[in-house]
Amino acid sequence: MKKTAGIHHITAIVGHPQENVDFYAGVLGLRMVKKTINFDDPGTYHLYFGNDGGKPGTIITFFPWANAYQGRIGGGQVGVTTYVIPAGSMSYWKDRLAKFNIKFRETERFGESYLEFEDVHGLQLELVEREEGEPNNWTFGDVTPDVAIKGFGGAILLSTNPDETAKALEDVMGLEKVGEEGDLIRFRSYGDIGNIIDVKRTPLGRGQMGVGTVHHIAWRAKDDADHLDWQSYVSDKGFGVTPVRDRNYFNAIYFREHGEILFEIATDPPGFAHDESYETMGQNLKLPEQYEQYRDQLNHELIPIEVRELDK
């Protein structure tokens, strides 16, 4: 039986790209580790935010479309993206969200306290304190490593068929069921980050993709050989899985589990520093080779963005 270490990345659809950068870099203090384009829609950015090194389990990625229609969160989607913060830093984050006039509420589940809020485009987010996970050594504005988001804590999945989604998590991805509480079933992977997945047990009608919704959740494969094993494994489990797609910073395969959530499996290597240095990641527009000839055109068409410190 194969087992994933946990979440590799989560990809969402959002609105204006500068608003997206201001929220995730300026407010949450994440590092923009890559500025590139949507390989399937090159007139659109693909922006990546994560910890200081852009490690798997810390990366949230965005397709920003200014003036696009708002989506509807529902079945077949990640409903809530959970970030993990260092133990003892919750009061800092309450103050920080209040500073930027971001409404939040405190909740509890499975013995943990959560801070729930929305991003500027309606994505559902939450923070939870945990000892697990290495520190994020990125400082931006007033967000310093002692309080910085480490990466993903996990996610809450909304399904049109929760029994099937639970089955996919256990029997395909190799997560372990570790608890039930209220309307949620909790699963855990063996990694120390991006490892806690809660599934809502009530079936939900299909959500509508658009601004403020998650497009897909990606799981970790160790390397290219492991990735090919996953492709065969998923196919043998009866799912239609795509050919391997080169995303430059990882290879990807996709399949839709029977609760209608789009799953990706992505390789940990090569990562985000292979076409930029660690020091300069995210500063320049990086294009795959097939789009280099259109660089001038794309620079003209893409909305200018900059990473701005909002604490000044």
Describe the overall structure.
This is Ring-cleaving dioxygenase. The chain is α+β, with helices and mostly antiparallel strands. The chain has one domain (7-301): 2,3-Dihydroxybiphenyl 1,2-Dioxygenase, domain 1. It contains 5 helices and 16 strands. It has an 8-stranded mixed β-sheet with strand order 2-3-4-1-13-16-15-14. The protein has an 8-stranded mixed β-sheet with strand order 6-7-8-5-9-12-11-10, with helices on one face. Strand 15 and strand 16 (262-267) form a beta hairpin. The longest helix has 13 residues, at 224-236. The radius of gyration is 18 Å and the shape is globular.
Q: Give the helix level as a range of percent.
A: 10-25%
Strand order of the largest sheet: 2-3-4-1-13-16-15-14
Highest-level CATH class: Alpha Beta
Mean pLDDT: 97
Tell me the number of strands: 16
Count of individual domains: 1
Distance between the termini: 51 Å
Largest sheet: 8 strands, mixed
CATH topology: 2,3-Dihydroxybiphenyl 1,2-Dioxygenase, domain 1
> What CATH architecture do you see?
Roll
SS-based structural class? alpha+beta
Describe the global form: globular
Specify the number of helices. Answer: 5
From the alpha carbons, calculate the radius of gyration and give it in angstroms: 18 Å
Low-confidence stretches: none
Domain VOC: 6-130, 151-268
Organism: Oceanobacillus piezotolerans
InterPro entries: Extradiol_RC_dioxygenase, Glyas_Bleomycin-R_OHBP_Dase, Glyas_Fos-R_dOase_dom, VOC_core
Protein name: Ring-cleaving dioxygenase
